[in-house]
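Supplementary material to the annual report.
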Amino acid sequence: MTDHIVKILEGTKVPFRNNVDYCIGTGRMGLALHKEYMAQLALVQDAIGFSYIRGHGLFSDDMALCRGYKDENGEPRIEYNFTYIDMVMDNYLALGIRPFLELGFMPSALASGEQTVFYWKGNVTPPRDYEQWKDLIKALLSHLIERYGREEVLTWPVEVWNEPNLAGFWKDADMDEYFRLYGHSAHAVKEVDERLRVGGPAICGVDDQRWLRMFLEYVRDHKLPLDFVTRHHYTIEPPRRAGHYAYAKLHDVEESFEVLEASRRIVDGYPEFAGMDIHITEFNTAYIPDCPLHDTNLNAAFIATLLSRLGDSHASYSYWTFGDVFEEKDVPFTPFHGGFGLVANGGIPKPTFWTFAFFKELEGACVHRDSRAIIVKTAAGAYRGVLWNADTAYTGESVTVSVELPGAEGEYFLVTRTVDEETCNPLKLWHDMGEPSHLMPGQLALLKEHARPLVTSKTLMSEDGELSFDLVLKPNAVVYFELSEVVRKSDRGYSYERVIQGEN
Amino acid sequence: MTDHIVKILEGTKVPFRNNVDYCIGTGRMGLALHKEYMAQLALVQDAIGFSYIRGHGLFSDDMALCRGYKDENGEPRIEYNFTYIDMVMDNYLALGIRPFLELGFMPSALASGEQTVFYWKGNVTPPRDYEQWKDLIKALLSHLIERYGREEVLTWPVEVWNEPNLAGFWKDADMDEYFRLYGHSAHAVKEVDERLRVGGPAICGVDDQRWLRMFLEYVRDHKLPLDFVTRHHYTIEPPRRAGHYAYAKLHDVEESFEVLEASRRIVDGYPEFAGMDIHITEFNTAYIPDCPLHDTNLNAAFIATLLSRLGDSHASYSYWTFGDVFEEKDVPFTPFHGGFGLVANGGIPKPTFWTFAFFKELEGACVHRDSRAIIVKTAAGAYRGVLWNADTAYTGESVTVSVELPGAEGEYFLVTRTVDEETCNPLKLWHDMGEPSHLMPGQLALLKEHARPLVTSKTLMSEDGELSFDLVLKPNAVVYFELSEVVRKSDRGYSYERVIQGEN
Amino acid sequence: MTDHIVKILEGTKVPFRNNVDYCIGTGRMGLALHKEYMAQLALVQDAIGFSYIRGHGLFSDDMALCRGYKDENGEPRIEYNFTYIDMVMDNYLALGIRPFLELGFMPSALASGEQTVFYWKGNVTPPRDYEQWKDLIKALLSHLIERYGREEVLTWPVEVWNEPNLAGFWKDADMDEYFRLYGHSAHAVKEVDERLRVGGPAICGVDDQRWLRMFLEYVRDHKLPLDFVTRHHYTIEPPRRAGHYAYAKLHDVEESFEVLEASRRIVDGYPEFAGMDIHITEFNTAYIPDCPLHDTNLNAAFIATLLSRLGDSHASYSYWTFGDVFEEKDVPFTPFHGGFGLVANGGIPKPTFWTFAFFKELEGACVHRDSRAIIVKTAAGAYRGVLWNADTAYTGESVTVSVELPGAEGEYFLVTRTVDEETCNPLKLWHDMGEPSHLMPGQLALLKEHARPLVTSKTLMSEDGELSFDLVLKPNAVVYFELSEVVRKSDRGYSYERVIQGEN
Amino acid sequence: MTDHIVKILEGTKVPFRNNVDYCIGTGRMGLALHKEYMAQLALVQDAIGFSYIRGHGLFSDDMALCRGYKDENGEPRIEYNFTYIDMVMDNYLALGIRPFLELGFMPSALASGEQTVFYWKGNVTPPRDYEQWKDLIKALLSHLIERYGREEVLTWPVEVWNEPNLAGFWKDADMDEYFRLYGHSAHAVKEVDERLRVGGPAICGVDDQRWLRMFLEYVRDHKLPLDFVTRHHYTIEPPRRAGHYAYAKLHDVEESFEVLEASRRIVDGYPEFAGMDIHITEFNTAYIPDCPLHDTNLNAAFIATLLSRLGDSHASYSYWTFGDVFEEKDVPFTPFHGGFGLVANGGIPKPTFWTFAFFKELEGACVHRDSRAIIVKTAAGAYRGVLWNADTAYTGESVTVSVELPGAEGEYFLVTRTVDEETCNPLKLWHDMGEPSHLMPGQLALLKEHARPLVTSKTLMSEDGELSFDLVLKPNAVVYFELSEVVRKSDRGYSYERVIQGEN
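Predicted assembly:
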């Protein structure tokens, strides 16, 4: 039992830029046509409500956007088909979420090669002809503006490609070729409307510092448009595989932040780019879709640490991904297969779902932040906090956090919502059930009934002008609380004490 | 901490007739037109699913069923209007629930006097003319058969009036007059269709033994139709009022059952009626709609005792009532005003809601019953139980129940759903909020989020051919469990131990 | 076959203030708790979308707002209960409609007498004590502000009482007493917030000119707050009764407008009030809820005339009522009983429903108005019109309207939606069915399937720079059209001609 | 104007086996994961309600059912994944529709070659190893029985492969190889449960008579299980292509039936198979998914002829397909692209949708059938008929059908639902709009508002013991009528004549 004291001092100002609901990741666009995908996204939007969604494969063949054909003279031509694009965008907008457009991968009709990535075979080769590539971008953006309105589409950021510093995602990880792609793409975007925002290079953590420097210098030297910088962030040691799964350990969290700070310093080091928005367009613990870590309470607690600090240097940070309708490595065999999602297949919120839901509540001025707690004061005067314990996973110890509020007067209402390995741990419930590959309706209903926070409350009275209360964080716990003053107005004749004492 | 041991022996047969979902009570019929009423009933039907619903006021003026007018010659005439009757019955049937028809109260057009009951002024005087009364019954039943089909309506029981042994409900509690009413009513019902079932006398516990005997003898002597006997059952000491509320203590439970056994013995004492179905067409703890006891966890635990035994001597037992859209004593001022309902206004399940939901799961053969536990074995071989603790409300002690299952082999899955004062106590949450009369949307959402059982699970392994586990019952707890064998089929490469140990 | 030519000249500006969707009437507030009421209102809001709703009985006993009781010392006291008020307002706001508050009728707890109006017994006597009346108004408005927010409630107009110039609605039609009531009420409103808008005198057409003058002079002389003037407007000759129904003939429409113009002139005749908003807080053809005229296509066509002109002199005009859940004269016996509603019970739109839906589409600048047509040009350049024929009901003749559009070039798309006695006449379908009092599900479904406009379309090509087309108005027809330019982009290889000619 | 007289004689018995709702076709199974697909199927089920659904690609790679992998020793193994299979079957059953299982195409993991069919690349080569193929079938059926219950799955018919007589669907149209496939498949099915029904050969109209004979003889000679015979049926001349589309003429309808009769005679010619059920597991006019004929009213009228007679010789006939979420030839560019569906993308019913909805109403004994009308008498004594006119498409003439009913007495209610080129022709409306590739919300709403039958009614009185009425069939019309006796019960005081005559 470790003690941890939080003292909230009136007038303290603590840095905390909460952008938890800015953007969320998704598997390939084609899956956004799926019913189960939309049901999971609806669940996420209802409880958390992200503003943007970003995923791969907008241009991939299954979206049917771009096709080659021969005209009556036998000449090869390109034509566009927005049928599926529209269905996906309609679906998104109906749930109040907008696309953060990622330009890629390469339609077969434009591709220079046949290299693909993922089970669903996204083509990762450069275009044969950059004019066709530009036409594609312009045709898409123009169509979107026609359908959804210019003012609407101007709010949709555009990112060029995904992780070109990896040879799996961009043929040969060819830096020069990516810069060419970026230049043509950025120009195409601005030719549709100067006000559209475009960015890159969407790199992940392999040789990333060199890529970032070279990219910024290329942009600077070629006077290319650049409205924001993007990168990715994952936080595990190399995993080990067994059958369909891979197992991984978490990085040290401070080392993980240091990687990001290095990017921030690089960008700020160029006068042309100093202070420019950096969007982390993907982050998570593991970077593979079959790592059971994603399904755990540990993941939920660890992500809390990230959410409490990622806004310090970044405009946004997009968790990869909202749900488990996702196919990078084939279709999953079981509901708890270690997918990236906040939601497991069947519509079961995982513990990390609640970390996001809790951070979403943190509106107002931050009054406290440390390694296991963040607290804000709302405009209405209530205190809201999230506390977590990612440290004692393997000792089994709980941490007691004492919150002290000097200057409090009168009666208060404390409500807590607890997600820990006992109260909200669908992975364990599924394990206890026997790890069924296919959930029967009763099993699914039970998992959903379980997979939510325990809500408890207390009436607190200040003593000597001070209020204090303890919150116990079991291993891998994430706890939300809200503390607000009570104006009690009991109805004529009502006495709660008399009720619970069973008097007559 | 009291110990309590439950040993489940193979082959044991324990009496338990579970008819928890047969019938539920409701306020006056006119309220069944309300949106909030139907929303609460939908919630109840979704989670519990009763077969029948019984309430007052089918014939009362607000249902507009029966009106007097003068024809072109100035002669007084009676006409019928089924507009609201149909809306109510359509509403019920759409939720899969059928009416248990209670004939009453008296339409003004037929009444012999002006005495009324309740805020909503149900006329409780005999008809001026029994032929008109019979016509009314026949017109209604004939209309229902025309609209809903004969086979359907034949499944709807018919009860004559409500609590005629109370002067408030039947002018002067005039026994002879009630018997006349019963006779005419029963004949009218059978004139529509011999197969329709009719019963009475719907008495409650005042001078009830004499009423029951006299009623049965009257029926016998006059050769009246009688398909079932009905009575009511409440279990509190006289309450004391303060402002809008009344506070009450519970009866001793054994004394309470003795009252019922006396009725059973009376019925069985007449050869003509021995073994006849007795329907308890109303039961609850308090018999008033402003008794906060109804909203407590104690109520939930106490009702569990009743549900475990009421089927022994009764064909059914109908909890009064499903919801809090109810107006006997004016419109309630707050959501937790001590209404009869399983559901509080706004759609918040009260603890007793879950007692019913848990008993609903008890399908199969009873293998154990005692004063705080009942356990069945399902056709599929799982054990399901409900446990409760209504004894330690004022000591604060918990009771540990040890369940032992000799003859068990291998791996088992235990899931529990716990409703107690900490996990599911919306009354307390509302109190902690400051007892708001009018819930803001966020307050209502929080109450709903809280007002549900805590679900937890365990993997159990048998040892030496026996399985045992402990369940802790805090004061006023009601706990449901299901224990089933596990056939574990882990997917290729999946290791839960490796996941939770954070290995890679 | 009468001819009627409409020539739309570029640049013409025609007066037309379209406020069709400002306000709609409703039966007493207590019915807003009903499921069927809300279903009908949802239908209306979905298709038309009114901003405000006004009805009687906010203060009547069934709303339970105000009660007397005796305190512990036996002193009489007043207390307020907002349970039902909140349910009703929550229901309204959830459908995007706000209350136009009508203060009345008198709670029994405050009443000076026992005179009531309607089947539901609204007390129409003055308050015993005007301070209690003022307290009631202030308590209600303060509660509403607390629950819904000040900015929201400031948009809710407040009208004092209903038709005090009729002795049925206000004891003895006592003018002086009404003026006292108005004065106290208006002050009470402003004491809650100066910005709240208050008006009266809500008179209908009996001795209305004298009432209006005296009211304005009283307000002026006593320097009372007055933000708007209100009156009612019905347009039938005295009806004749038979059984449950009453039959009526329509007024001459010009005489009907003359009555309204007189009010406008009276108001404008006082310098203090010249130009002040007049809200017609009730209008319809018949003023009784059992007049079958309301259910006819003639009603729909006649109302079109009113909607085309009522905005000329009035800030708004509120059709009485949106639906047929309404109880002034008892509960209706059949679905087509001549209720006021736009929607019949069961959710069947009546023809007049579509008149409102069509007028709702008339956004933009009016380019033509005559006695059977009104046409606007939208911001996007399309023409939208409503045409009607209320003149040939008894001759059976159709009217052909020729619309000519000089200055048109190219291809146009004309779509029409027709409501007439053949295409959309649920009253006749119900009659043909045999006038069933209680609709079986198949009958209801058929009525709904029928009760909607026939939609047809045409491709029009301009000739010599002019476009013209004919629309045929059968007796009692209301026809909507939209005419817009077509930019045709046939897909590669698609030929509609080839399709319909069955070529291969 | 052609005349056509229908005389309904009491006691006439006319053959008509109405199995219109037995089965419906669908594109590949993988699309059943789509939201839009399910929305269209829900629409179809709501209005028509088919019992079974049959489509391709159950075993294709995108369903992820079957995969190869190497075990720890590097040995190749096969594993099964039911994740998507379950989602699809859950989706179907939730809409009350069951699969008519078509075994195919070949999973890559089992395939002997690489030949594929369709845009979505279904592998059409035989299995490398028939034991693996049998294992796959048995694994699937066993899983389905485990999940959905044995009694349920026993109702699901199983068909072996699709159109093996076409080289595009089965490598080289290799007859011997198909017979081997059939034999192994049929045995695998019966090894799971003898009661499962299996059939084939699912041929279409190329060399079909020889295939059918050889198949039956092979089955007979090898004593293979065979519970039913299947074939397909399309009714156009060879189409001509232009761009994305193909245009086709209809076959002569009698020649079309003759092809089917030939199959029937072949089957009946073998004593072992005489009278065996023949299921037409696909039928439509055109056999290509880009033939605009499918979207026309002509298609609706022509299909009526087929529906009136196909039951004579066949157990069922499955229209290909329910909706336009379908990808054989790439993703469609526009909503009206000539897809097979009863429903166009966006959820717009095509005219043929209503032909099915109308035939669905034909319950009871057939009393009349000719080349443009079919009439039944229901158990309740009403007459229901469907009439059609597929003959005058290119003359523009209407056909008047006079229906005569000798022996009628009293008052009758006639309701008609008309689908023709004026009342319900969404293709034309879309054309008039300018053939937009992507529907804006208002355009979609308008198309849906239009795409439904016009409902009209009449009161008919018999004269001299006979009733007669005329129905006018415009070109390509399909008209439904119901005629029933009226028992008129007007409410007290209600006079429809007085209403419409505007009396007071």
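Chain C has a mean pLDDT of 96.
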